[in-house]
Write a structure and sequence with these properties.
mainly beta
Length: about 220
């Protein structure tokens, strides 16, 4: 991708670990971000051999580059994450999936953008009574054969601290089975868009529990 920022993020996020640029890690993004504050991306590492330990995604030219770190804690969850993010300008996006042997498998993509998605005024805070809806989770389960897709949206402003408002964002999420087993953990960062959307894929059609917490200590729960 001829990115001048690769070495910086390689040292900071991947700790200079062994890297393989790998087309089996699919990073799907639109070629142009019509709305720079809500850019859909999907990371799919299911073609990698062996177990995926974690996935890190980042936007190299964002003022806050780190998007998420995803830990599939169970074989019942696929190493697939879809989410909407902010981009400040045209940038290279990366998704690095680490397998049990310690190797980072990196997928790359480039998105063009008019810019300003990270520093635009908050849309959520301009809506009346947004505080009353804080933490509401809207979602559904979609059957995809052996697996099902959980798709959800959470009411939250995801303030990134760049426009005069202190950081206020969802930073932790856990997906659990109905019996309490931990299936996946997700660390979120302010590069995620307002009212964040999230999609995960899990085995079967059993009920699942979602737990969320923001950096102010507010906790939210939902069942699917």
């Amino acid at each position: 991708m001829k990115s001048s920022m690769w070495n910086f993020h390689y040292q900071r996020l991947l700790k200079q670990g062994a890297v393989l640029f790998d087309e089996r890690v699919k990073l799907d993004v639109p070629p142009f971000a019509e709305d720079s504050s809500q850019v859909p991306i999907q990371v799919d590492a299911r073609e990698l051999p062996g177990d995926v330990v974690q996935i890190i995604a980042w936007a190299e030219l964002n003022p806050i580059p780190h998007i998420f770190t995803f830990y599939p804690e169970s074989a019942d969850v696929l190493p697939v994450v879809a989410i909407r993010i902010r981009v400040e300008q045209a940038t290279v996006l990366r998704a690095a999936a680490q397998t049990k042997d310690g190797v980072w498998h990196v997928g790359s993509a480039r998105v063009d953008a008019a810019g300003g998605g990270c520093t635009a005024p908050s849309v959520v805070r301009a809506q009346p009574d947004w505080e009353k809806r804080l933490g509401q989770v809207h979602g559904a389960r979609f059957n995809r054969g052996e697996y099902s897709r959980l798709r959800l949206r959470v009411d939250h402003p995801m303030d990134n601290g760049l426009i005069g408002i202190p950081e206020f964002f969802l930073n932790q999420a856990q997906l659990r089975a109905d019996d309490g087993r931990l299936l996946a953990t997700l660390e979120l960062f302010p590069a995620v868009g307002e009212n964040p959307t999230l999609s995960l894929e899990v085995r079967g059609n059993q009920a699942n529990q979602l737990w969320l917490r923001d950096n102010n200590g507010n906790e939210f729960k939902a069942s699917f």
